[in-house]
Amino acid sequence: MHGALHKYFHWGAIASLVTLIIWCVLWETVVAPLQPGGSWVVLKAAPLLIPLYGVIKRDVYTLQWSSMVILLYFTEGVVRGYSDTNPVSARMAWGEAAIVCIYFACAVLYLRPYKKAAKRMARELLEKVTKVSIKK
């Protein structure tokens, strides 16, 4: 379960999450802010700090829920990519969507062996319970 590829998926999830945080901050403060000088939109990066510790520590539950929450950032990237009139901001939005795709893929592929193991354990438990109830 913990092969080299598995380790790369973990590091990919960490790297893409950190990149996304930096990307959002730079986008909304320096590269293409909605208002000159920056705006409160930069706070969209703050919720990404919540799962960071759990992702670093390989917490399966954190990786599961963060892979779903991160899709909100994908949605924002696609919507702003299509609708932003500023071409630099539109490119940043598409970049955000791409980084989210990388995180999502790494998180899901990292979690895959755990999900398979959980299914196997549930199947074995169900078989044990079924055998016990048949004997009675």
Automatic annotation (TrEMBL):
<dbReference type="Pfam" id="PF09842">
    <property type="entry name" value="DUF2069"/>
</dbReference>
<dbReference type="InterPro" id="IPR018643">
    <property type="entry name" value="DUF2069_membrane"/>
</dbReference>
<feature type="transmembrane region" description="Helical">
    <location>
        <begin position="94"/>
        <end position="111"/>
    </location>
</feature>
<keyword id="KW-0472">Membrane</keyword>
<feature type="transmembrane region" description="Helical">
    <location>
        <begin position="38"/>
        <end position="56"/>
    </location>
</feature>
<feature type="transmembrane region" description="Helical">
    <location>
        <begin position="63"/>
        <end position="82"/>
    </location>
</feature>
<keyword id="KW-1133">Transmembrane helix</keyword>
<protein>
    <submittedName>
        <fullName>DUF2069 domain-containing protein</fullName>
    </submittedName>
</protein>
<feature type="transmembrane region" description="Helical">
    <location>
        <begin position="12"/>
        <end position="32"/>
    </location>
</feature>
<keyword id="KW-0812">Transmembrane</keyword>
